[in-house]
Write a structure and sequence with these properties.
Radius of gyration: 20 Å
Strand content: 5-15%
Shape: globular
Subcellular location: Cytoplasm
Number of strands: 8
Largest sheet: 8 strands, mixed
Number of helices: 16
Structural class: alpha/beta
Enzyme class: oxidoreductase
Distance between the termini: 44 Å
CATH superfamily of the largest domain: NAD(P)-binding Rossmann-like Domain
GO biological process, one term: phospholipid biosynthetic process
Catalytic activity: sn-glycerol 3-phosphate + NADP(+) = dihydroxyacetone phosphate + NADPH + H(+); sn-glycerol 3-phosphate + NAD(+) = dihydroxyacetone phosphate + NADH + H(+)
CATH topology of the largest domain: Rossmann fold
CATH class of the largest domain: Alpha Beta
Function: Catalyzes the reduction of the glycolytic intermediate dihydroxyacetone phosphate (DHAP) to sn-glycerol 3-phosphate (G3P), the key precursor for phospholipid synthesis.
Length: about 350
């Protein structure tokens, strides 16, 4: 299963941990991979050292895996394009891609975020710039650090075109990386984006020294918020109990690799978001996604109290303990009816 019989040329845009890990996975299956990065200096560093010490330390990049900062070189006769770029930078990168993109080339998005200005999901940003193109999502509980080290991982591929979804499934699946299909594009993108907001809350729980009871309640009620918003936007209920929903939520709320959880822990200790991000030198999608989710909740008239309190902590300088106390003393409700709303 690991070696692909029909070799494809695949361009992976984004030299972060996830782009690097997927490039290695695809290369190990026998595909010809081009890993593109936007920063020429760091691309040269990667080519020379064959290790992404900034985002995926300790994992060697194969010597024959192509790395480039030239978008034109990456796109020549490409069979598939993987977009592994943080949401705030996607639009700029795809505008550059448009100059070299051959219409009809399938795109695989691993973007987990919602654009602030437009409230567009990752696939919608791609469509907004490139027009109607074959797009699939590859999302779920999948930290780059574990995938790169071949630890068992399971994700979903979602697309409006299920023939494309099955093709992507076969390209990516290995004995270490299992891929399911799911036709619910909206639900998969909303679940894997909003979970980053709940992960910040989970980090705050950990940073404040709360226990298992608190964490379990947060994840359960956070999932209820994701379900309410996802269904209001057109997602399918079953998606939220699957890998892209509950699966990804559990991973990001517990994993030591989770950047959003780390943000929450640092906030609980008194640090400001701007200071935390500067020290991380990475993108924690949940911070900006919180703004987008609050606007979506208002637009679709969906109650999301945890998300609202995270917004207050991040952008209104609210004390995290006060936010927790106000969540605990809200008006009593029925759990089942509250999830159904």
């Amino acid at each position: 299963m690991d070696k692909q019989k029909n070799t494809k040329k695949i361009s992976v845009l984004g030299t972060g941990g996830w782009g690097t890990a997927l490039s290695i996975l695809l290369h190990n299956k026998g595909h010809k991979v081009f890993l593109w990065g936007s920063t020429p200096d760091y691309v040269e560093f990667l080519k020379k050292n064959r290790e992404n010490t900034k985002y995926l330390k300790g994992v060697k990049i194969p010597s024959d895996l192509n790395i480039t900062s030239n978008m034109a070189n990456a796109q020549i006769e490409t069979n598939f394009i993987v977009i592994a770029i943080p949401t705030p930078y996607v639009r700029k990168a795809i505008k550059t891609l448009k100059n070299h993109y051959i219409p009809g080339t399938p795109i695989v998005s691993v973007i987990k975020g919602i654009e602030n200005e437009t409230l567009m999901r990752g696939s919608e940003i791609l469509g907004d710039i490139l027009g109607e193109q074959p797009i699939a999502l590859l999302l779920g509980p999948s930290h780059a650090e574990e995938v790169a080290r071949k630890l068992p991982t399971t994700v979903v591929v979602s697309s409006k075109d299920m023939k494309l979804a099955r093709e992507i499934q076969n390209i990516f699946i290995t004995k270490h990386f299992r891929v399911y299909t799911n036709p619910d594009v909206i639900g998969v993108e909303i679940a894997t984006s909003v979970k980053n907001v709940i992960a910040i809350a989970a980090g705050i729980c950990d940073g404040l020294g709360f226990g298992d009871n608190s964490k379990a309640a947060l994840i359960t009620r956070g999932l209820a918020e994701i379900i309410r918003l996802g269904i209001a936007m057109g997602g399918q209920r079953n998606t939220f109990s699957g890998l892209a929903g509950l699966g990804d939520l559990i991973t990001t709320c517990f994993s030591p690799y989770g950047r959003n959880r780390l943000v929450g822990k640092q906030i609980a200790k008194g640090k400001k978001p701007s200071q935390i991000l500067k020290e991380m030198d990475q993108v924690a999608e949940g911070i900006l996604t919180t703004k987008s989710v609050c606007r979506l909740a208002s637009k679709y008239n969906v109650e999301m109290p945890i998300t609202k309190e995270i917004y207050n902590v991040l952008f209104e300088d609210k004390d995290p303990m006060k936010a927790v106390n106000e969540l605990m003393v809200r008006e009593p409700k029925s759990e089942i009816e509250d999830i159904m709303l």
